[in-house]
Amino acid sequence: MLKHFIGLQWKSFFRSASFKTEIWFKILMALGALYFIVVFLGMGVGAYFIIEDMEIGDPLRVVNRFMVYYFAFDLVFRYMLQKMPVTNIKPLLYLPINKTKVVNFSLGKTVISFFNIAHAFFFIPFSIVLLVEGYPPIQVVGWHLALMALFYCNNFLNVMVNNKNAVFYVFAVLFILAGASQYYQWFDITVYTQPIFDFFYDMPWTAIIPWSVLLGMYYGAFSYFKKHMYLDGGLAKKQAEAKTENLEWLDRFGNLGTFLKNDIKLIKRNKRSRTAVLMGFFFIFYGLLFFTGALEVYDGPFWKIFAGIFVTGGFLFSFGQYVPSWDSSYYPLMMSQNIKYREYLSSKWYLVIIATIISTILATFYIYFGWEAYAAVLVGAIYNIGINSYLVLWGGAYVKTPIDLTSNKKAFGDKQAFNAKTLLLTLPKLALPIGIYALGHFLINPTAGYIFVAVFGLLGFVFKEKVFTMIEGIYKKEKYKTLQAYKQK
Amino acid sequence: MITVHNLTKTYGQNTVLNIEQLEIPKGQSFGLVGNNGAGKTTLFSLLLDLIQPSTGHIVNKDVQVDQSEAWKPFTSAFIDETFLIGYLTPEEYFYFIGELRGRNKADVDALLANFDDFFHGEILGQKKYLRDLSKGNQKKVGIVASFIGNPEVVVLDEPFANLDPTTQIRLKGIIKDLAAKEGVTVLVSSHDLIHVTEVCERIVVLNKGEIVKDIHTSAETMKELEAFFAG
Question: What is the three-class DSSP state of A240?
Answer without folding.
Answer: coil
